[in-house]
Every structure is written in structure tokens, then in C-alpha cells.
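re the bet — no i am not wrong, look at it urself. input seq straight from the record:
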Amino acid sequence: MTPHSQVFLVDDDPSVRRAIERLLRSAGYGVQAFASAQEIRRTLDEDGDDGPACLLLDVRMPGHTGFDLFEWVRSSGRDIPVIFMTGDVDTSLAARAMKAGAVEYLAKPFDDEALLEAIRKALALLEVHRQPG
């Protein structure tokens, strides 16, 4: 873990947010949880370069989806690894997400260790991208 091991979690289900937030905090990660893509977009706009080291996004949410947010993050030029999670597995959407650069696509309910491994992978990728030269 790096000093910037901050995970931003976006899921419209409060019980899922609480459970994942507890898991991540117990593993030593800083966590900010959001109920919608709109909420996190405001925060990312305010944070500038001091934003998250990793985004954990629910695919299906009211309003803007996790994939909408993913595309917005990419188009804004931010280098933030993204992990998707979803309640209904859609192989075409999973393939699209992975092709677009997502680190992982997890089906709910997922194993705690699978989520933690995906976050470790995302943070390792971030460190590689931030290496000078």
C-alpha cells in the first residue's frame, strides 16, 4: 500500500457501500463512499490531482451509470485505475469495460479477497504509471 491508497467507492445501495467500506478500512485503505456518479464527479472536480488512487464503481445505478463515470474519468485525462462491480453479469459489458482499460469486473456477491486482490492490482498499476521516465 502507498500513502495514496485512497479508494473511492460508488454504489447506490447503502448496505453494499457500508459493507465494502468496512472491509476496505479493515484492510488499511482510506475510503470515500458515494451514492451516485454525480456525487463523485463533484468531488473529483474539487480534488484536482489529489483524488483517489482507485475507483470502485457499481455498473448499474440510477442516472449516470458506472460506465458513464468511467468514460468521463478517461476523457478528463485522469489516470485512475477502475474496478467495476455488478449484480447482473453482462459478458458484453464486461468485455467492453476490460477493453476500455478497467482493472477488473467483479460479479456481486464477490469474495472479499477477490476485491482486495483487484485493489492491490489497481494500485500496482498506478505505481507503474507514475514511475518517472
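see?? The chain has a mean pLDDT of 87. told u. also The chain is about 45% helix and 20% strand. so pay up
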